[in-house]
């Protein structure tokens, strides 16, 4: 899907939105965990956070939590798979996000939190009878949107703007009346919307219905600015690349996600390009894909010397719904020779899939990109160099998980966090790290000696592992 935004629509171009922290409760294998994304060691323009830890320790839970945020801010339905992400020992999971919203004249702190739970999907009850399975879905509830302001004594105060933890529309009452006044019809319409969004696994606060009511009726400019800031951030500036994208690459499909701007318009979105043969894309998307790839080639040639990507136009065709589409094929241009891009390594495909977003993160201070397993298939030296450049010279926010420890030696120590073995305190920063310490060696030493307040690794025994391999081999399969 591609979203177009005309130049005149960039009413909030002067503001910058950053995720400052995330708190996760009872989500996947995280009973509780808080991650602060601010680098407290040194002031950088870029905001980078790399999360490290052993398998199954809560790294992907962070990326999933950010994906849930994007779905909520965009008013999209949360897929039913997230119902199974709620910790098995609880009935619901809660996620809280703190943002910094910067305008030239003032800076606001903004909080958004919500809970999710698994409920029976009544609309799928008929299908469940034939499969003997109980159909379930996700329900978003207890949403709260708050912001901070300075009180008369110059102290920062946190105040809710919309708190849905009530059977009524929302509280505080004064802020609700700011929106609907004494109009009972508007009130009832929004109350129906609140119930409908629950039934359809959507956010009420960032539903199109409530956003439109604010645009039409809200007389408080500050309230509208703050809600609109996060709404636009979710639609145009927050990007999440999860492990499903990596899986698509292994199936010879390239997910190309981008944010591209020229003199007259902006395009935000993505396309899936089949590499097994000609890929079919909407006709009006062809020029965007071509320009995005030209833009990427500027950097790609430096990352992989001698390599460029090209787009071959194989002509137009008509789709089943009667629309005109373009047939295209991606090719590699290496040493003046053309070969289909499908024959490139998965590492090259991974770099190309993510490269345009990394370019945007480098240049745009209000873009956040979260990537799971950023190191997958990428040569470790190149990975370290890219992250070093983005962290030192970039402007945007990059959040990533990785198994490769090379970045621990190339980027500032304040950009790195680790998972622990304690589900109730899942994320930590290493303490007592000196400026001269090699963070990679320091981390290895802590695995052996356990010098942190929380254990970062469940120890393994080489003898027991070898014995288990031998015992497994003695079993007839």
TrEMBL record:
Domain Rad50/SbcC-type AAA span(s) in chain numbering: 21-97
GO biological process, one term: double-strand break repair
Lineage: superkingdom: Bacteria
UniProt-listed InterPro entries: P-loop_NTPase (IPR027417), Rad50/SbcC_AAA (IPR038729)
A GO molecular function held by the record: ATP hydrolysis activity
The keyword Transport appears for this protein: no
Keywords: Plasmid
Protein name: Rad50/SbcC-type AAA domain-containing protein
Organism: Lachnospira eligens (strain ATCC 27750 / DSM 3376 / VPI C15-48 / C15-B4)
């Amino acid at each position: 899907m591609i979203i177009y935004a005309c130049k005149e629509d960039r009413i909030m171009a002067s503001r910058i939105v950053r995720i400052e922290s995330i708190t996760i409760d009872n989500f996947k294998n995280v009973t509780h965990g808080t991650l602060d994304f601010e680098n407290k060691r040194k002031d950088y323009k870029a905001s980078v956070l790399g999360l490290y830890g052993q398998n199954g320790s809560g790294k992907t839970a962070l990326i999933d939590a950010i994906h849930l945020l994007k779905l909520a801010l965009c008013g999209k339905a949360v897929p039913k798979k997230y119902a199974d992400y709620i910790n098995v020992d609880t009935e619901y999971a809660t996620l809280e996000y703190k943002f910094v919203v910067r305008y030239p004249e003032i800076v606001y702190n903004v909080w958004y939190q919500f809970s999710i739970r698994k409920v029976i999907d009544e609309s799928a009850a008929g299908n469940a009878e034939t499969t003997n399975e109980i159909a379930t879905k996700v329900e978003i509830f207890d949403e709260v949107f708050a912001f901070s302001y300075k009180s008369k004594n110059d102290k920062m105060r946190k105040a809710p703007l919309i708190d849905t933890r009530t059977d009524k529309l929302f509280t505080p009452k004064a802020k609700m009346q700011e929106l609907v006044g004494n109009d009972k019809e508007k009130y009832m319409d929004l109350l129906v919307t609140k119930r409908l969004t629950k039934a359809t696994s959507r956010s009420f606060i960032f539903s199109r219905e409530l956003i439109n009511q604010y645009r039409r009726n809200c007389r408080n400019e500050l309230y509208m600015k703050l809600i609109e800031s996060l709404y636009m951030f979710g639609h145009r500036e927050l990007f999440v690349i999860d492990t499903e994208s990596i899986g698509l690459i292994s199936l010879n499909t390239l997910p190309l996600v981008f944010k591209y701007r020229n003199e007259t318009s902006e395009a935000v979105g993505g396309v899936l390009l089949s590499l097994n043969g000609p890929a079919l894309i909407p006709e009006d998307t062809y020029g965007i894909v071509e320009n995005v790839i030209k833009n990427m080639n500027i950097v790609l040639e430096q990352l992989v010397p001698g390599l460029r990507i090209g787009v071959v136009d194989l002509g137009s065709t008509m789709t089943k719904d009667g629309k005109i589409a373009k047939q295209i094929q991606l090719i590699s241009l290496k040493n003046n020779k053309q070969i289909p891009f499908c024959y490139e390594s998965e590492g090259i495909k991974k770099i190309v899939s993510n490269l345009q977003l990394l370019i945007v993160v480098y240049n745009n201070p209000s873009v956040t990109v979260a990537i799971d397993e950023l190191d997958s298939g990428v040569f470790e030296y190149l990975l370290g160099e890219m992250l070093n450049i983005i962290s030192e010279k970039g402007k945007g926010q990059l959040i990533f998980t990785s198994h490769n420890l090379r970045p621990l030696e190339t980027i500032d120590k304040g950009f790195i966090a680790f998972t622990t073995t304690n589900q109730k305190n899942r994320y930590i920063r290493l303490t007592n790290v000196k400026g001269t310490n090699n963070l990679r060696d320091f981390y290895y030493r802590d695995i052996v000696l356990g010098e942190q307040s929380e254990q970062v690794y469940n120890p393994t025994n080489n003898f027991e592992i070898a014995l288990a391999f031998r015992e497994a081999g003695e079993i007839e399969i």
